[in-house]
Amino acid sequence: MASDPNWKEKALALADRISKDLPSPELVSAEFDCWKQKWNSVNDRPESGAAALRLTSKSFFPNIHTMFCLVATLPVTLCESER
Fold first, then answer.
1. Is residue 68 a part of any domain in this protein?
2. CB neighbourhood size of 35 (10 A)
3. Number of other CB atoms surrounding residue 22 within 10 Å
4. Predicted TM-score (pTM) of this structure
5. pLDDT higher than threshold 60 for residue 1
6. Range of the domain at 53
7. Packing angle between helix 62-72 and helix 28-40, nearest 10 degrees?
8. Total domains present in the chain
């Protein structure tokens, strides 16, 4: 997050693309602001997306939690058949 100054723009673009799957898409921007505040006050930040998902309260950050769940299920490799 801190390493990319455009993190919020990119996250909001993702949220816009998957808004049908989010519990409260109208609150995404405010939720990101709270999320940033939470991690700015913590020295021991998660090292991976999986760790961040485990540390994300589904009741306090429902949209971010859902986004992590959706991103976690995306494939990270491609498989092509041989010809």
1. yes
2. 19
3. 20
4. 0.78
5. no
6. 26-39+48-72
7. 90
8. 1
In a domain? residue 17: no
> What are the tens digits of pLDDT across the range 7-53?
889 999 999 999 999 999 999 999 999 988 988 888 888 888 888 88
| Residue 25 near residue 15 (C-beta atoms within 8 A) | yes
CB 65 within 8 Å of CB 18: no
CB atoms under 10 Å from CB of 67, counted, come to 22
In a domain, 6, yes or no: no
Nearest to 23 by CA among 73, 53, 65: 65
Q: Is 54 domain-assigned?
A: yes
> What 8-state DSSP symbol labels residue 25?
G
Please classify residue 27 by burial: count the beta carbons closer than 10 Å to its beta carbon, then call 0-12 exposed, 13-18 middle and 19+ buried.
middle
